[in-house]
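One such shown below:

_____
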Amino acid sequence: MFQDNPLLNQLKQTMQDNTPKRTGIVKASERGFGFLETDKGKRFFIAPNEMKKVLHGDRISATIQENGDKSTATPVELKQTDISEFVAQLSISGKRVSIKANNPLINGFFKIKGAMQLTTQGYHDGDWVKVKLLNHALKDNGFLVEVVEKVAEYNDPFAYRMIAVATHKLPNKAPEFDHPWQVIDPELARQDLTKTPFFTIDGVNTQDMDDALYIEENEQGWALTVAISDPSAYVPEQTEMDKEAWQRAFTLYLPNFNVPMLPRDLSDSLCSLKECEKRATICCTMHIDKTGAMTQEPSFFAAWIKSHYRLNYHDVSTYLESDELKEDQWKPNRELSQLLKILDTATAARHQWRCENTIVMKNQPDYTLKLNNKGEVYEILCEPRRSANRLVEESMIAANVCAGDFLAKHKQAGVFNVHSGIASDRINKAVSLLAEYGIEVTAESLVTLNGYVEMRQQVAKLHNAYLDHRLRRLLSYADTSATPAPHFTMGVAHYATWTSPIRKYGDLINHRLIKSVLTQQAASPVAVDIGIHLNEARKSQRMAERDVNNLLYCNYLKDQENSDWRYKAEIFDIVKAGCRVRVQENGATFFIPSSLLGKTSNDAKKIECMREQGVVKVGEQIELQLGDVIDVMLTSVKPESRQLIAKLAEPLG
């Protein structure tokens, strides 16, 4: 009766026009309500019934209602939505079909186009699917979606892999191309080093081996040759295969699973430096004196090599670290033993030189999640960086520094890893912070590479974890650039990775550039926005890795919920809402809400988490700070949001 009343509609419109409006981004919560965050930093509450009209991340216009000191927002107009597709789980019960989004922040009611035909199309209750958003509730009468593809079967124990990959729009299988593999650069002269005893050191199960090493000792020190697999010898530029590799940008690694950048018959076979197999490589020979310094310009060249020995980190580390080996432990032959011991001495000298002249970051252990055939974690290995890791790491870092200088000199272009140190708007904060610890620096010196390295050398002598964390928060973001620039946090003038061309497209580009210098031929220009593309691709992969690892940790630790077990954990982040800590024994990340830092709710009210200073205070007293190692206890496991909630074993107060 009143629905089409023009006077009533006009009155409604007049009331809306006279109600204050704000534009901002919708931030949903798992409990149904949300907030409108405006561009000016203000937040307005959105009630659960109004949240049914919008999605997390939507940019909307909303009317604002004042109710005492509480302001609420009512969505009225959609400006933009970033959600076009999302992953959800199907629920099919008789004639009732619904979906539940994998993202707990997407919790609206969705009508499904063609829902009744899904069972005849091979879909089952519990299947994971990708759905496309057709209609938005703020523009149309409710949300309407369409199922576009199946992501994983309801009974797949490894469904979480496919869910993470689909959520972040990543490929879920290796590229496949029917291609006759043959060398495409016969004009490039390659030295025959197949009789030189190169060796590889990798994980036991590694298939895509892309680097091999050989070293000789001389009167001045050592000549170290790094040989890197050369997939650019088989992958023509601008072909469909090359474009696919560009799009992927990296090989994706998840526990017990990888999705390669290149076809597997390249990455795991023809380009993998397998033992006793002839392979095309690009090599770099570096001359290192007994102090660990590089004494002359390195030599880059193309070669055919054979890996004479396929080694793994564990065996090599145990051999180098043991005075006596048990009978059942691996032992190298005389030739290999000599090579390993020479390389051990050379890389130790190189590491010491870097400690004294550049910047060496603190080593963190690796955590390996071991899975059973049900897709569950049965063991987590904490693997500190050992002797064999140092052999490879120091060799690769040296090779990448050489490549950075080589490309900067000959091409003034490449894919460079760059970092400008302290962010320009935080320089004065850094100067003040360092002064508190007796380190006198100037703003002018901190923006130079030498000045920054000198500062970090002084900081390293203090062995102060808190100061390290505080300085890290003042850094600018690392970047990827098509033009040469310094890498402040490594303390080098140029750094260009080329040692993983099977796994990283940027390294493949650098191979092509190095070869263009060797052949004195023109190379394709490096895209100015290469950094944007590679950074976005890596970000998507890291988010998929995070989703999978966090879920696996939740399932692995759920039996420890509310147990008496204490974990040693390091505080690596402090925000207003609480602290984030990393468990030392297994690498899990726990969040400790500020409400669980104290013994009682009254104690919690007196506790202040200060992000800027990186401390937790009770009154004026600092009780916790970044870098502290504390005892924590797991209180809550939330698999849906991938969260592990903890409390202090010894509460404050």
The chain has five domains: 19-80, 90-156, 190-414+497-545, 420-477, 561-648. The mean pLDDT is 93. Residues 78 and 305 are 60 Å apart (CA to CA). The first strand starts at residue 21 and ends at 28.
